[in-house]
Every structure is written in C-alpha cells, then in structure tokens.
C-alpha cells in the first residue's frame, strides 16, 4: 500500500485526508479517494494523535504510532470495503495539533487537504471546526471540507459501528 515517498520532490499531486475514526472522516476518505483518482495523485491518509511535535514519527511511543497507522488502513476497509489497489497510498500517524500538522505536510500549492466535518457530537464538531479553520487560514493549498451526509448524522448518534455504514455512504 505504501507506494513511494509522498514527500519526494518528484512526486506529482498529493491529496491529504485527515482521519480520526469518525463517520465524518470516513466520508472525507471516500471523497479523498475520488479526488486522488481524478488528479492521478498520491493519497496520504493521516491520523494525528494529540501530543507535542508535528515532526513525523517523533515524540512518543512507536507502538502507539504503529497502532494509529493500523487504524488508518482499517478506515479504508470501513469506508470502502478494501484499500484501493489503483492508487498510490501512504498511511501516516503523527503527534501534534491536527490543523498545524496537516498544513505542515501539505506544503505545495498543488496539494489538497480533505477534512470531514459535520459530526453531531459536540466535541468532535468543535475539533473539526478548529482543524478546518486552521487549515483554511494557514494552508497554501486548497482545503476541501466534506460534510457528513445528512442521512448519516442521525446514525452517528447510535452505537452503529462505522464499518456497518459503508453501504449507506454514496460512491
């Protein structure tokens, strides 16, 4: 799945998607896959853990970062049923603030940041707004905020597992 280095200067377009385990982030992942296909871009799926230091894989236990990278691959299975084989995909787990980390990673004008927004739960909604505002204000590339589909807002309040919802998300 990890194909090439997305930070190599010879790599073309890149699409970054932030994943936090929410239904909104799974909707964003589905949109990011579509955008990566349209742009023939390298897809970088990022899980940002709270903590200090936005430098890749520094600060903290490597086991925690590996578990977080594993959740990124699990998100593909939950959102799409499998990891797309037609895309170059990298999974990253980093420590830091989500907005600042994404802006640091997406440092080219032709990059794209994709974020899920619209979770009805207050804490997740607040975090998503903070992240989205930071990215819009500081990114040197386009930022795409993907709302949670209306029919999934009510489901996100239930105990339904995200992997059971993939059939409800539009392709």
UniProtKB/TrEMBL annotation:
Domain (UspA): residue spans on this chain: 14-147
A Pfam family annotated for this UniProt entry: Usp
UniProt-recorded name of the protein: Universal stress protein
Domain of life: Bacteria
SUPFAM superfamilies membership: Adenine nucleotide alpha hydrolases-like (SSF52402)
């Amino acid at each position: 799945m990890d194909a090439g280095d997305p930070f190599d200067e010879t790599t073309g377009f890149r699409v970054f998607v932030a994943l936090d385990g929410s239904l909104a982030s799974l909707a964003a992942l589905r949109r990011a896959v579509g955008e990566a296909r349209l742009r023939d871009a390298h897809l970088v799926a990022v899980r940002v853990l709270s903590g200090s230091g936005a430098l890749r894989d520094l600060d903290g236990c490597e086991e925690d970062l590996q578990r977080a990278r594993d959740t990124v691959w699990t998100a593909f299975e939950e959102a799409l049923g499998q990891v797309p084989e037609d895309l170059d995909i990298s999974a990253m787990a980093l420590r830091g603030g989500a907005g600042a980390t994404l802006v640091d990673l997406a440092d080219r004008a032709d990059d794209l940041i994709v974020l899920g927004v619209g979770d009805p739960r207050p804490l997740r909604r607040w975090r998503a707004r903070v992240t989205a505002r930071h990215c819009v204000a500081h990114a040197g590339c386009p930022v795409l905020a993907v709302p949670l589909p209306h029919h999934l807002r009510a489901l996100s309040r239930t105990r339904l597992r995200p992997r059971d919802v993939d059939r409800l998300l539009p392709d």
